[in-house]
Write a structure and sequence with these properties.
This protein is α+β, with helices and mostly antiparallel strands. It has helices at about 5-50, 55-65, 75-85, 150-155, and strands at about 70-75, 100-120, 125-145, 160-175. A hairpin with a 5-residue loop joins β2 (about 100-120) and β3 (about 125-145).
Length: about 180
């Protein structure tokens, strides 16, 4: 007798059943996006810190002139690398800086004498000796991602730990002209 009234009850029942599932899926998408964003940002921050940290000019000059390597390790190296990641990187402001930890850090600054050869435009070869200043950076960096929504906390957990090993070695300076006594 009242077909419209029966259909209205069916629509409300469908709405009540589907809405929590849709809301849970929507919140899960937000959390997966947040965790992915935090992971990529952390990877970039670690990579940036390993490439951009530089020793002071006094340390560089001393290592080049004297040939004695300079090693930063332990808490000193951890503090330097953490500072590079947190203070001198414009994107690190999107990370929770209290959840970043640096362990087993070691920064090794050493001199190497090398011969470099260059091909000139007329196919002649130019050879020169020089002092190369190399920087080797290594550390274990940890970060904790915390999901945003209750659904993410329930499904992903309260904390998602990420670990990255930082290791870079590269030449930061070349000075030509090696004295004979080297």
């Amino acid at each position: 007798m009242y077909p419209l009234k029966e259909k209205r009850g069916q629509a409300i029942l469908e709405y009540v059943l589907v809405t929590p599932l849709f809301l849970a899926a929507f919140l899960m998408v937000i959390d997966v996006g947040w965790v992915s964003y935090q992971r990529v940002l952390f990877d970039y921050t670690v990579r940036h810190a390993s490439w951009e940290w530089r020793p002071s000019s006094d340390d560089r000059d001393q290592v080049i002139e004297d040939g004695i390597a300079k090693v930063y390790q332990g808490e000193d190296a951890s503090t330097m690398l953490r500072k590079q990641m947190t203070e001198e990187n414009e994107l690190s402001g999107h990370l929770n800086l209290t959840d970043i930890s640096v362990e087993n850090a070691r920064v090794y600054l050493y001199r190497d004498i090398r011969t470099q050869s260059y091909r000139c435009y007329n196919d002649s070869e130019y050879v020169r000796m020089g002092r190369m200043l190399n920087l080797e950076t290594m550390a274990d960096v940890n970060y904790i991602i915390r999901p945003l929504t209750p659904v993410g906390i329930k499904l992903l957990g309260d904390e998602i730990p990420i670990e990255r090993s930082m290791y870079k070695i590269y030449n930061i300076q070349f000075r030509g002209g090696v004295p004979d006594n080297d």
